[in-house]
């Protein structure tokens, strides 16, 4: 399956994510994105930095993060998962060995289902070496 198919089929077609992206764990390239959901080079690098250094995670919790040009307030950072909100909108970000998955949910979607969807794909990709 192509990276784009993971975004389209595993994330968006689930009905729990309305936009998604897969970027390299180093934060230096986008592997696949939903149309119009483009993370800047700085945004991708900032996500990678959160996972690389606890001080960056603390900064993200204090200042928020930017995803596709929008600022989100970080609600939770765990070992591999970040959850952030902008009003009732939210993003679930999950790191695997080689990738960072970003799933966006609308205000009508259930955040817990969105998180479960992104984490399930992360589990699968980790299991196959990514």
UniProtKB/TrEMBL annotation:
Similarity field: Belongs to the profilin family.
Broad class of the protein's primary localization: cytoplasm
GO CC annotation: cell cortex; cytoskeleton
Pfam family, one: Profilin
Protein's UniProt keywords contain Cytoplasm: yes
Subunit-level organization: Occurs in many kinds of cells as a complex with monomeric actin in a 1:1 ratio.
The keyword Cytoplasm belongs to this UniProt entry's keyword annotation: yes
InterPro entries: PFN, PFN_euk, PFN_sf, Profilin_CS
Record protein name field: Profilin
Keywords carried by this UniProt record: Actin-binding, Cytoplasm, Cytoskeleton
Protein's job: Binds to actin and affects the structure of the cytoskeleton. At high concentrations, profilin prevents the polymerization of actin, whereas it enhances it at low concentrations.
Organism whose genome encodes this protein: Microdochium bolleyi
Subcellular location(s) of the protein: Cytoplasm, Cytoskeleton
GO molecular function terms noted in the UniProt entry: actin monomer binding
């Amino acid at each position: 399956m192509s990276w784009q198919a993971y975004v389209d089929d595993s994330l968006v077609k689930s009905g729990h994510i309305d936009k998604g992206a897969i970027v390299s764990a180093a934060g230096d390239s986008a592997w696949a994105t939903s149309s119009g959901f483009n993370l800047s080079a700085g945004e991708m690098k900032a996500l990678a930095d959160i996972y690389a250094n606890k001080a960056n995670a603390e900064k993200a919790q204090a200042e928020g993060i930017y995803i596709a040009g929008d600022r989100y307030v970080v609600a939770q950072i765990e070992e591999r998962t970040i959850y952030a909100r902008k009003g009732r909108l939210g993003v679930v970000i999950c790191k695997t060995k080689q990738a960072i998955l970003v799933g966006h949910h609308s205000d009508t979607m259930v955040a817990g289902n969105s998180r479960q969807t992104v984490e399930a794909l992360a589990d699968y990709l980790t299991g196959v070496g990514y």
